[in-house]
Amino acid sequence: MKTTKIIYWITTSIICLFASTAIFMNTKMAIDGATHLGIPRYLGLEVSIGQLIGLVLLIVPAVPARFKEWAYVGFGIMYLTAMNAHISVGDPMGNTIMAIVFFGLLLVSYTSFHKLEAAKK
Description:
Elements: H1 2-19, H2 28-37, H3 41-59, H4 65-88, H5 93-120
């Protein structure tokens, strides 16, 4: 149980640290990257806001499990979409690997979250 809790908090913290970079979506590099992938500017802003909301939902322990579930869904869709976008524009695998790594971390966090929830019952 203790190991599961440690795994949960480490993986969730890494995901949330990455999601906290959403505040930098107005930088030149972020705008150029979104343009390269064919992502409209307004969608980048919406994704940034969604990341910050998801960050709060995942990191605050008092948030009900149902809301955390939706945060996991949102992050999962975002990482899979990022992977698809990089593959679609012909980027090298090195650009795609980050989305795959973070999706893997998300799966580990999600699995350990459910183990902790099952232990509460």
